[in-house]
Amino acid sequence: MEQKKWIRDRIAPAEIEKYLRADGSDYVDDGEIFRLLGKAGEPEAAQVRDIVAKSMAVQTLSQAELAALMRVRDPALWAEMRAAAGAVKRKVYDNRIVTFAPLYLSSKCVNQCVYCGLRGSNDAVTRRVLAMDEVRAETAALAGQLGHKRLVVVYGEHPESGVDYIAESIRTVYSVKAPARKGVGQIRRVNVNAAPMRVDELKVLHECGLGTFQVFQETYDRRAYAQMHPAGTLKGHFRWRLYAMHRAQEAGIDDNGIGALYGLSDWRFELLGQQAHALEMERFCGIGSHTLSFPRLEPAINTPFLENPKWRVGDGDFERIVVLARLAGRPAGLIITARESPEMRRRLLPLGVTQMDAASNVGVGAYADGQEKQQGERQQFLLGDPRGLDEVVREWAGAGCITSFCTAGYRCGRTGKCIMDLLRSGAEGKFCKLNAVLTFKEWLDDFALPETQAVGEALLQKELDEVRRGQPNIWPAFEANYRRTAAGERDLYF
Description:
Helix content is 47%, strand content 8%. The chain is α/β, with parallel strands linked by helices. α19 runs antiparallel to α20 (450-470). The longest helix has 21 residues, at 427-447. The termini are far apart. 48% of the residues are buried.
């Protein structure tokens, strides 16, 4: 298909207009956000504690309440907020960390985002769209050598990686079974990070078994958005992107992941924009986003914008973003990726983070060909944490966190509003604890090095004792499944 025609046909105005407010405005109200950010002075301690109490009850905060927490500067109050963020995380998710890997299948893109290494005009990047045999090889490396069970598959916006290609690649990833030490390595959950699509296209992906659908707004600040995404490009259409999740819900995809690229505008505006997005989804379909992501700008080859961006987010403010997002009152998973350094990820882990990737490689085709060092000409950006999965799992286990490879909830229908309600109540955590233990045992037996096995088995004994004491009614069935897993059976879950 001619590229210009493909671009021209991508956006369906009717699939924007139907979601607008009665007066034709959007759910992100720039004027209201600027008004909230313009308020001076710290809130009273009593007001802060009232808002945090609402957070502890896992009730969604208003934009005004979240903005009030942003103004806290008192060290003692901030310490209370940090502690509360960790407490909310443990209440909803316990000590589990869900892990995944990104899988880039294409680097061709028609857009010209000034901050992106894969922008179409960047001649320093080697362009590829993987064939299905190459997709199988990448999947076999991830599932059979590393032991990953969950992927976020990433696609550039280009006619060669349109909906038909995405659908075929999802089916291909699910089809791969790779031999492991005891069992078989296989991807059980394929999430997708891609460009906004029409409802009819999203229905195709839903039928293929798509997990969570991610579209990041990049920036909710319209002025910054226009500067970063040139007019006349597909991505230059702010509203087409802003309503991507409305269309996904209409297509039946009820697990949605949103995010902003921190460093394109004032981080406070972005966080309030994300909150407006979550509140809008609760209004529109009864549930907020399934996950929230917080990528920061990272270096990319031949991308001058990244040398000195005006709104670069420092580590102190980034910690505030994560704490505030956890206190925003939603049970959504908070994702911090390997863009961040090991030190930063350790710092953020106790403050509300629930998902992290490991053994990540963002070069197209890089898992199968054994690329160990980063190669800027193959990557959208450079990673801050290139450590392997075994090392990361061992570190988390040493810190008392169990790595969960579980995907059972999705396959049992615990998605969308169902899983959000279960998370708010704490009920989902009981299922997840059981399944986290089973999948962790699987991974240790199939993939872990001896040192990691020893640390992991010690943690497992603590987890087994906790299940025995805390869930005595389910213990006999759980113990039976655990013994079957230890004997070599795979993919047993509750």
